[in-house]
Input
Amino acid sequence: MPADDTAPRAVPQAMLRGYRQKCPACGQGALYRKYLKVVDACAACGEELHHHRADDAPPYFVMMITGHVIVGGILIAERIWAPETWVHLAVALPALIIMSLWLLPRVKGALVGLQWALRMHGFGGVEREELDIAPAVPAAEQRTT
Output
């Protein structure tokens, strides 16, 4: 971890490192200990990575990407060759599954890298679960008579 925790972090570099399934801070250590299980801390540099909150975003982006590619491919194939439905299914379903499984850890890694670069969810050294938008006003002071 750098000595100056306020130094700017390069977003594209961090996302590319995450896409490559490496630590967004150093680019050396592995990002995952299992298929989609992010390590708690980088083995190479010690950067804590347990802060990430990727949640449902990676599957959403993967569905958007694969859906556009596969449906586009089906439409082009239909226009050019007009194959039978079973040919579409025999080609498109395995392609969809393989593409989704290949993309999911890469997209999640890129999102973890983005969160790290933007110091989101505790990556900036400060743990904050709630945003202080406005100070809390006790209920007794809210009432006007």
